[in-house]
Design goal:
This protein has 651 residues and is α/β, with parallel strands linked by helices. It has 20 helices and 18 strands. Helix 5 packs antiparallel against helix 18 and helix 9 packs antiparallel against helix 10.
Length: 651
């Protein structure tokens, strides 16, 4: 069933055409990835789909009653004060009903009436019908998956969050909201590798239609089954996953190039014939061909890599074999220790990928390495012959109070004007754009200026902190190729798994104040640590199941006189329910022990680490099955106890 149909849509702002002639349809359950260079209209397309913007020409048709969830709509969290309230905002009415049910249950324990029982029954039926018992576990699971502590989130104030954390709260709110279509605009921003992997799994298990704008190629490859590619001044739909889209796009460009070249040969031959015969014997035929040539529909030059940033990274001198050394390094922020007593070395030619959860200290480690902050204990030294170029993810290296021309001219004061402008042109800033002040640039434009500055450094050590932020897919591919061809040493912090897979030949994993060194590629690290993700998935699913049982207990009606019931059946039921609860607690403890072991990166660096991880993973699966049964038994025993209590109260 078609949910959204876009037909020959144009968007124009005054005399400027953002895009034109876009046609595609979205069917229920499809997963679309929207890709293309920055500024081509991807986010504007979302506004067309939500109805916030009407096309200048063409049509956008939505299925009647269609509900659409867009992250941008949820930046205002209303009266929500805590993280949990903000994430659960779409269910505010049902959550208020849950509180009312709990209050009614308490009141009926001391003051019973037919009217109160009728109201309680009516409210409880509505609460169950609308999925009330699943709300809290669903919100908890999404918050947990996005890196929050679900229990702490109930009291954690929104005002204490960073910008990135607020972005994750907005994403959580969007994911839990009931809707037919999810519109996700760069959803992996502010996510580390583990939370990105969780989001992939969440979306793949969802039956909703998903349309996402992303520059994360690994994420796109894992999630989408259709692609809409913005290129030139239009967009082309592909009924293919991301990897097949790449192949089909290349084939399409080749076909367009062949057709264009063929037409150019025909035009050239006709122009030559007309020039030679217009004043000769064959003047009549020449004039006829000239008329035909004037009416011929012209094929445009194929849009390909033209206009893509041109980046080449070179070194001025080779540098020594030992690039950097850490000895008993300690890094802390205020009273929180991020890294403690770390010893490690970076050697010439290393392509080091540094990974770890948000807040583990990756960026702080880089700032210590480049000298922007001192070590809090031990040492971190860079070799004497090593020159460092640092790409700051916040783009602080780009002076906002200068023009782009002045930024480059100060780095190369001996260059002539044409050379400065030529260099800026390589990064997409031509003509008068060289006189723009950096403070007027978008995030993507500032990132390109930062790369233009990086190229001039000719350093033999590149320290790159999230360099793919703000860049579109095409520009990321250029950056990746440039780093691949670079002769120096690279230290890379990134959540872009495609880039890490392509470049990193050594991995540092930040975990629980320690750094674990993995002497292999990032792709090998992913394979070795598959059980880590599996363990996290098991732990999250069991937490959701446990909370679902707890939620049902909240609104259970409490009968009067229960505590005084001496009957044997009641005591036995209580003993059985308590025994079931103890069995759940025991299995939960065993699951926690195994998941903690699997979560430790040190396990995967040992000779038998991978084999042991697989064995532990198998044990975890067995425990999960037993825990599922134990939870179900606990729920049954608790329901039986409540039934006996009700019967005793009315006898």
């Amino acid at each position: 069933m078609t949910q959204i149909s876009v037909g020959n849509a144009w968007v124009e702002f005054g005399a400027t055409t953002l895009f034109k002639d876009i046609t595609f349809t979205v069917a229920a359950g499809e997963r679309w990835g929207v890709v293309g260079r920055n500024g081509t209209g991807k986010t504007t397309l979302f506004r067309l789909m939500t109805g916030d913007l009407a096309p200048s020409r063409g049509t956008v048709t939505r299925q009647s009653g269609l509900s659409v969830s867009l992250l941008g709509q949820h930046r205002d969290y209303g009266t929500a004060a805590t993280v949990w309230e903000a994430a659960a905002g779409p269910f505010a009415e049902l959550l208020a009903l849950e509180i009312s049910l709990a209050q009614q249950a308490e009141e009926m324990a001391t003051s019973y009436s037919d009217a109160s029982m009728e109201r309680y029954g009516r409210d409880l039926e509505r609460f169950e019908r609308e999925g009330g018992y699943t709300i809290a576990p669903r919100v908890d699971a999404v918050l947990q998956g996005l890196g929050f502590d679900a229990t702490k989130a109930r009291t954690q104030l929104l005002e204490t969050l960073s910008g990135g954390e607020r972005g994750r709260v907005g994403l959580a709110r969007q994911l839990v909201a009931p809707s037919d279509i999810l519109l996700l605009d760069e959803p992996t921003n502010h996510l580390d590798l583990e939370t990105t992997a969780w989001l992939e799994q969440y979306l793949n298990e969802s039956d909703r239609t998903i349309i996402l704008v992303s520059h994360d190629r690994a994420f796109l490859a894992a999630v989408v089954d259709h692609v809409l590619h913005f290129e030139g001044d239009t967009a082309t739909p592909y009924a293919a996953d991301y990897e097949n889209f790449i192949l089909q796009r290349q084939e399409r460009r080749l076909a367009q190039q062949r057709a264009f070249d063929k037409q150019q040969k025909v035009i050239t031959a006709q122009v030559d014939y007309i020039a030679r015969n217009l004043a000769g014997v064959n003047t009549k035929q020449a004039k006829g061909r000239r008329k035909l040539l004037a009416r011929m529909p012209r094929l445009g030059s194929p849009v390909g890599d033209d206009g893509t940033m041109s980046l080449r990274l070179e070194i001025a001198e080779r540098g020594g074999d030992q690039v950097a050394v850490a000895e008993k390094l300690r890094i802390q922020v205020e009273n929180r220790i991020l890294i403690d007593r770390f010893d490690g070395r970076i050697m010439r030619g290393d392509r080091l990928g540094i990974v770890g959860p948000n807040g583990a200290g990756k960026s702080t480690l880089l700032k210590t390495l480049v000298g922007e902050r001192p070590a809090d204990g031990g040492t971190l030294r860079v070799g004497n012959s090593i020159s460092v170029a640092y790409y700051d993810q916040n783009l602080g290296q780009v002076p906002l109070d200068k023009t782009l021309y002045d930024v480059i001219n100060e780095l190369r004061p001996t260059w002539e004007r044409r050379m400065v402008q030529g260099h800026l042109g390589r990064f997409g800033f031509s003509g008068d754009e060289a006189q723009r002040r950096a403070e007027t640039l978008s995030g993507g434009e500032r990132a390109r200026v930062a790369l233009a500055m990086l190229m001039l450094s000719r350093a033999n050590l590149l320290v790159l902190d999230e360099p793919t932020n703000h860049l579109d897919v095409e520009t990321i591919e250029v950056l990746e190729d440039a780093i691949e061809a670079y002769d120096g040493t690279v230290i890379l912090v990134s959540h872009d798994r495609a880039m890490l897979r392509a470049l990193a030949n050594k991995v540092w994993v930040l975990h629980d104040r320690h750094i674990t060194t993995f002497d292999g590629t990032f792709a090998e690290w992913e394979v070795a640590s598959e059980e880590r993700a599996h363990a996290a998935s098991v732990r999250a699913s069991e937490e959701v199941a446990l909370r679902r049982v707890e939620e049902k207990k909240k609104t259970a009606r409490k009968e009067p006189g229960v505590g005084a019931d001496p009957r044997k059946a009641l005591r036995a039921a209580r003993d059985t329910a308590a025994q079931a609860e103890r069995a759940v607690a025991q299995l939960e403890s065993e699951v926690t022990t195994i998941t903690r072991t699997l979560d430790d990166p040190e396990l995967y660096t040992r000779p038998d680490g991978v084999e042991r991880a697989h064995k532990l993973g198998a044990q975890l699966d067995t425990l999960r099955a037993r825990l599922d049964k134990a939870l179900a038994q606990w729920e049954r025993d608790t329901a039986a106890l409540e039934s006996i209590e009700r019967a005793g109260a009315t006898s």
